[in-house]
Structures are given as structure tokens and as C-alpha cells.
Amino acid sequence: MSDFWFEFVEITQTVGDGLLFGATYALIGIGFTLIFGAMGKLNMTYAGASLAGAYAGLAAFTFVNAPALVVFLVSALASGFIGFVVYVACFRFIPVNNHLAALMASIGALFFIDEIVIHATDGSPLTFPAMFEYVMFDLGPYGIRGDLLFVFVVCVVSTAGLVYVLYRSRLGLATRAVSQQDVAARLCGIDVHRTNAITFVLAGLLGGIAGSMTAAAVGVLSPLVTIPLTVKGLIVTVIGGLGSIPGAIVAGLLVGGLENVFLYFRGVNERDMYVLLLLFVFLVFRPHGISGTAIDRD
């Protein structure tokens, strides 16, 4: 009985840690979802821009010894600026109905940003400042890591702020109008290009927070994280349902929790394989995701 109880506590502890860290996946998924909902296009540069913002925050810490909160703020602002540049370079001047061109342009920008980071850092992992790294909270037989709790709280606050902007502000009204029918939005006097640019900046701010939170939780920032984080973001977006922010939140927590379970039972070498298998299961049995709507061809 004691062995069973110990195993149960270990598994539930693993799931809890995964849920806390999964908040960063939720933020990345929300960023993909926000841009897809506004323009109907995938921005493959998103995760790379998020990590590039985290590198900018790390530069502030390295050169001027900025405190951790300033590091996270710089990361968000830098990622927001990169998001605006990506919109101008990869989406602004490409015809709206040419989805493939925008997709390929964003993929090219992803590799371009990744190469800049690799050359700037010589491809070496760098230590990222963490908050509450050695703080533990005891909750019965469970221990809650202070850094993961901090990451979770920051991600929840950021998500709540985004939801407020989308549903309680004129910018959010304009964004939702453009996403539903851009021609009607133009007729109502909404500047579609300006609204899309602001949407990219908002998504970039979220991405910078997610990138810096991911680095803070792991303690290391590396160019090798770019592609895996992009893949995880796309998985969360598809599982949650394209265009669904609530779905992205649920999917991010789900992927984070199950990823830790896979890590516990199968080890790091097989963890990502089972996460991809989870994606295939959703594609087969619920292709429109958790909160997405079924798509019918005309």
C-alpha cells in the first residue's frame, strides 16, 4: 500500500508540475491562434521571435545587470517589436488570398531569426535568470516549485489581460471584426492593416513573456529550443482548435501535463514522440480540435 501511495504521489506531482509549465505552451498556442484568427494565416516565425525576445532580455541582464522583472519586460517588448517587423516583411505586402506565400515567407523569417541568434551566441546555451528558483511550497505530500508557480501566475495574468483587450476594448472589437469579415470592417472605417499590425505586436508581447518564462523555468536559453517550441506551439494550436483561444489554453495545459507524464514513464528520448502521437489521435478522432468548429468544404 505504501508503494502504491508513493507511486500515486509521484505521478500526480509530475502532472501538477507539467500543468504549471504547460501555461507557457498555452501562451505560445494563444499567439499562433490570435494571428490565425485575425488573418487566417499561420505565422511560423512566432516561437522564434519569442525566443529572440528572451535573448534581448538576457542581453539586458548581462550588460546592465537589469533585475529579473526588467528582463521579462524587455523580452516582451523586444518580441513585440520583432512581431511588427515580421508582419511588415512577411504579411503586409503579400496578397490576402495567397496563403502559401505568407507561410513560406514566415518560415524563411524563422530560419533567419534563428541564424542571427546562433551567430550572436555561437550556438552555445546561456544561463537565464530565474525567480524563486530555490523556493518550495509544501502542500501535504506535494511540493510546488516556486519558479513554476511564478511562471504559471504570470502566464495566467497575461492571458487574462489579452482576453480583456479582445473583449472589452475598441482594439479587440476591431480585431474581431477584421477576423470575421475584413471587407465589412473596411466599410465600417476600420484600418485593417493597422489592426493586423497591432495584433502581431500583441501576440509578440505574449510570445516574449512565454519565451522568457520558458527560459526562466528551464534555467537555460538555447537556439536548439526554437524548432521544438515551434512544433509544440503548433500542436497546441491544432489540438485546441484553430482560432480558439479557450481551446489553446486547455490544450497547452493538457500537453504540458501529459508531456511530463510521458517523461516520467518513458524518459526524455521518447517524450516528444508520444506528444506527436497525441496530435495524431486528435487529428483522427477530433480533427477540428477541442473548441474548434468543424470545417465544411463548399
Strand order of the largest sheet: 1-4
Proportion of β residues? under 5%
| CATH architecture identity | Orthogonal Bundle
Unreliable segments (pLDDT under 50, ≥5 consecutive)?
Answer: none
CATH class wording: Mainly Alpha
Helix content: over 70%
Measured on Cα atoms, how large is the radius of gyration?
A: 19 Å
Number of helices: 11
Describe the structure in your own words.
This protein is mainly alpha-helical. The chain has one domain (2-285): ABC transporter involved in vitamin B12 uptake, BtuC, CATH 1.10.3470. Helices cover 76% and strands 4% of the residues. It is built from 11 helices and 4 strands. A two-stranded antiparallel sheet has the order 1-4. A two-stranded antiparallel sheet has the order 2-3. The model has no long low-confidence stretch (mean pLDDT 85).
Layout of secondary structure:
Layout: H1 2-39, H2 46-64, H3 68-92, H4 99-121, E1 126-127, E2 136-139, E3 142-145, H5 146-168, H6 170-180, H7 182-187, H8 192-218, E4 220-221, H9 226-240, H10 245-266, H11 268-285
Antiparallel strand pairs: 1-4, 2-3
Helix pairs in contact: 1-5, 1-8, 1-9, 1-10, 2-3, 2-4, 2-8, 2-9, 3-4, 3-8, 5-6, 5-8, 6-8, 9-10, 10-11
Write a compact overview of the structure shown.
The chain is mainly α and 298 residues long. Helices cover 76% and strands 4% of the residues. It has one domain (2-285): ABC transporter involved in vitamin B12 uptake, BtuC.
